[in-house]
Amino acid sequence: MTGISDARTRETLRDRFAHSDFKHGQWEPIRAVLDGRAAIVVMPTGSGKSLIYQLPALLLPGLTIVVSPLIALMKDQQDKLAAQGVGAIAAASAMTRTGWRESVSATSPCLAEEALRTFPSRCLFPAEERAH
What we know:
Layout: H1 6-17, H2 27-34, H3 49-59, E1 64-65, H4 71-83, E2 88-91, H5 97-104, H6 113-117, E3 123-126
Parallel strand pairs: 1-3, 2-3
Helix pairs in contact: 2-3
């Protein structure tokens, strides 16, 4: 249990995402993640899956890593989070070392433990081949 209350979670939902309530199927996996439990979510397109990792990313310490095979989706999510004032980086396989450095404001393009510990953003979307 992280100690993050339901009230604080719902307040963040309202304040950061401008939603008055959760869509069907969102609350249970969000609560599981906030409680330190795993959650497997299978939902159709447009049902609000992204909020399931975005909201905990704002409430929990550290970096949230989201692996997606779709570069367009990664960039879309990065842009949506930026619009909400949440730092996020999409690290596509085509990104150069210079582009990576500029994106993460780091001196090293690798995903070493030290780079992650000092990462200035809340969400990282690495392409599948960059996730290992």
